[in-house]
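Q: Got a minute? One more chain.
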Amino acid sequence: GSNVLRMSSSIQIKPKTAVQKSKTSSPLPCSPEPAIKPQPKPSDKLNPKTIDPFGARCRPPSAFASMYAKGGIPCRLVHGSVKHRLQWECLPETVPFDPLLVTLAEGLRETKYPYTFVSKEGFKELLMIEGATEKAIPLLPRLVPVLKASLAHSDDEVFGRGLDALVQLSAVVGPSLNDHLKHLLTNVS
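A: Always. Here it is, folded:
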């Protein structure tokens, strides 16, 4: 009988202490009323106090960067003491070329590390596997516009990566690339 009495008294005590705490302390930050954030005024854009001309521009990540961050590229950069390399989650021979080779080619336009290294090395390593010719030829209509974009980039390093990728692709697919050269030659010259 005394256990029941204690339980009922402890239940009655807890609400009283909660009520006492709320009376003595300041209002809780998570009040039932939603916090109303002031809407920025159009004139705030012109206010020099709100603009930092030397601040880093917040640019959304590229498609390649977001795919790499999500784990959509089945390889990771391994930092060596002297030389970096890629570590594949599965054998590159078993990786489907269809989305991956085009995605790696899109990554050639990246300007930030490690994306530059992963895209360049991944593209090269995929083209070096046995049977790459048969897998890459059907992708030429999708690869050529992506390589053309990297050849038209204003950054010289991006242009160099695009040119290297074009040379590697040419060595793998051979004369199959001839039909697509008219799209690439203006950017190469």
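A: The chain has a mean pLDDT of 78.
Q: Perfect, thanks.
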